[in-house]
Amino acid sequence: MSSLLWILPLVPTVVGLAMLGVKDRRLLNLLDIVSTSTIVMLVWAVAQAVMHAGPLRAVKTFSADAVTVVFLGLIALLSVTTAIYTVGWMRREVASGGMAEHRLSKYFALTQVFIATMLITVLADNLGLLWITMEATTITSALLVGFRLDSNGLEAAWKYIIVTTIGISFGLFGTVLVYAAAAHAGASEGAMNFTTIASMASRLDPNIVRIGFIFIMIGYGTKAGLAPMHMWLPDAHSQAPTPVSALLSGALIKCALFGIIRFHTIAIGACGPGFSGHLLLLFGIISIVVATPFILTQQNFKRLLGYHSVEHVGIIALGLGIGGPLGTYAALFHVINHGVTKALVFFVAGDAIDRYKTHTMDKIRGFIRAAPYAGTFLMLGAFSLAGTPPFSIFVSELLVLKAGLAGGYFVAIAIFLLMVIAIFAGLIHHAGKMAFGEPDPAVPRGGEPASGVLAMSLLVVVMIGLGLMIPPVLDTIFTRAVEVTLGH
Amino acid sequence: MSLELATHLIDIIGAFLLITMIIILEAGDLYRAIYTMAVQSIFIALAGAVLGAATHNTDLWVIAGLTLVVKVLVLPWLLLRVIHRMRIHHKIDPLIPVTTTLAIAAAIVMLAFYLSSSLVLLKQVITGNALPIGIALMLIGILVMMSRRTALMQMVGLFAAENGIFFTAMAISQGMPLIIEIGVTLDVILAALVMGVIILRVKSSIGSDIADLDELKG
Q1: A306 to each of A231, A257, B40, how far by Cα in Å?
Q2: Nearest to B199 by CA among A243, A155, A48, A5
């Protein structure tokens, strides 16, 4: 079964290379869907194996435990829904001249390689490999962010690649320090492997690990979009082509959080839960607070969603920081919930922006009349992002709240609640103004691509389903993932 | 080579690394900054050779060779090519007065040494002063990036900052696994290529330096 671990990233890599020789749009879409559905099935097989036989390892470099499964599941789900969405999106994009037909194969190939790098990132057992592929995700996705070659896109791509590359150099430094600590504590074979280091974490020198974790937090925190290192995020996520935005906001920033979680586990073992937890809590609260005013005053639809990602990454960091089984559970659950909802809302935004030919929310009116499905999904997505029941984000936010109160983090929870309420009001106001009313007669009505509606419906089902109940299988995975994270 | 001699040599190389970093920081000319970065990388390769000889770790020799090829030859060549293709004038005006940046750099160096002095145990794990110098190089590299609004200078700052990380990584008693070093180096080359492509694309289609674009706000 462990060979699955290297077959998994190989699928999109091979398909991506093959795509370079394909010119036909439909065939490219088909390959995209076949590849990503295969990923879903393989991830399912990995999840089964991990649940029944425990963590998997392959060639001393790859490993999969319950935490990996959580992130693999998110990447797989978002990859396949994005592939489905891309069918209708790309048809419109080519028809309107937004995407030149001779560049299609490059776009699809890059997306596949981007997905492959994300998969390796969460499958990496070697912390050096984790860093290398994390940087590789930046390189591939920077090309996708600037794919339109317009000045805004290129500016965003430049900021993105420069800021996150320098940011995650800090991550490499932190990795080197943790490796030094492990080497000093006597690990010879595999001193860079997470499983080795985590198993001997209590023997690592806490001082070195502390300094190392600070570097990791700044480094991978930059890539995750935690404030105050988030400045590149609203630019990159708003300028990227919509399917790429969905993957960046839904999946990629979670991969960076995965890196932080790995080192969090090591830091818990070496210095107790206090140090890394408090640092996560601090960055979480800063992110939530910094994002709020920008969300309230934002006029650009996709930038609004970018700032929302900063807020929600902050909530995940807050959950991890509060810690304990409940806080960590809430954080991991929120990783899935935010990813699913954010991809949905980006899909909606893509439709709205194409229809109204503007990014400015003030100019979007009567979206439900113009596009009944996407308009309805916009309202559902907005209520979900704002944290109302019966959507899944409500459940994970409630769990963060419960864990925080139980842990005695009253100030942090008070700030969190205040911001969430403010954001709720702002978001519903924005979304309501866009969804209701009478659209301008010039705006095309109907004609929603079936693929887009299907992709969005899938995400809505997950978003509401997880809000109503967490299936026992998923609950087991999360519970195991919590144990792995806390080093039990 | 004895370990004591190696420690001594590493400290001398560290001093030269800092000096080259200061020259990059105050450089008013792109060519000078790029050539200095190449010289700095020669010192990194030297450090690899010294440590390789002292620890009998052949991986370090390979890493030294890799540094020589990639950071001394390929990257500077790439940057010079981009300058040539862009036909830009190579004088650069810093955003912050040079005296101020030099003062900040001095503060960074002192801070790095102060921080590392509290970590007694690390002294046994990392040879000589490689840790404080690595931290200082990294932070001054970021200072280079922040004090110039020129895309190429930002790239030079980035690679110089990464030299700091490489230096510390080499000096860890065991050395980094070779395959990981190769992967990291590959990332550096790919990132440089993509950055070069973006710079040239903006120059040819919009006619300005990418670092000057400032439309995305709020």
Answers
A1: 10, 16, 39
A2: A155
Which B positions 175-214 lie with beta carbon below 8 A of chain A? 176-177, 180, 183-184, 186-187, 190-191, 194-195, 198-199, 201-202, 205-206, 210-211, 213-214
- ipTM score of complex: 0.93
Nearest to A178 by CA among A264, A278, A254, A120: A264
Q: How many domains does chain A have?
A: 1
Write down how long chain B is.
218
- For residue A93, the enclosing domain spans 4-486
pTM: 0.95
Question: On the CB side of A289, how many CA atoms lie within 13 Å of its CA?
Answer: 13
Check B158 against A166: CB less than 8 A apart: yes
As a whole number of angstroms, the distance between CA A453 and CA A475 comes to 29
Structure tokens at B150: 């020129």
**Testing the interface with B: which of A61, A161, A165 to mutate, by most B Cβ within 10 A?**
A165
Separation in Å, CA A325 to CA A209, A378, A399, A485: 23, 33, 11, 9
Residue B14 lies in a domain: yes
Q: Is B207 a member of any domain? A: yes
pLDDT tens, residue order, chain A (488 aa)? 788 999 999 999 999 999 999 999 999 999 999 999 999 999 999 999 999 988 998 888 899 999 999 999 999 999 999 999 999 999 999 999 889 999 999 999 999 999 999 999 999 999 999 999 999 999 999 999 999 998 899 999 999 999 999 999 999 999 999 998 898 887 776 778 999 999 999 999 898 899 999 999 999 999 999 999 999 999 999 999 999 999 999 999 999 999 999 999 999 999 988 899 999 999 999 999 999 999 999 999 999 999 999 999 999 999 999 999 999 999 999 999 999 999 999 999 999 999 999 999 999 999 999 999 999 999 999 999 999 989 999 999 999 999 999 999 999 999 999 999 999 999 999 999 999 988 888 888 988 999 999 999 999 999 999 999 999 999 999 999 999 999 97
Answer whether residue B218 is part of any domain.
Answer: no
In a domain, residue B217? The reply is no
Distance (Å, whole) CA B208 – CA B200: 10
- On the 0-12 / 13-18 / 19+ scale of CB atoms within 10 A, A486 is middle
Give whole-number Cα distances, A202 to A6, A197, A205, A337, B172, in Å.
30, 9, 8, 33, 21
Say how many domains are in chain B. Answer: 1
For tokens 């770790």, the residue is B57
**Contact at CB, A157 and B198, closer than 8 angstroms:** yes
CA dist., res. A349 & res. A340, Å (int): 14
Name the residue range of residue B71's domain: 3-212
Inter-chain residue contact B187 with A139, CB threshold 8 Å: yes
Chain B residue with minimum CA distance to A295: B218
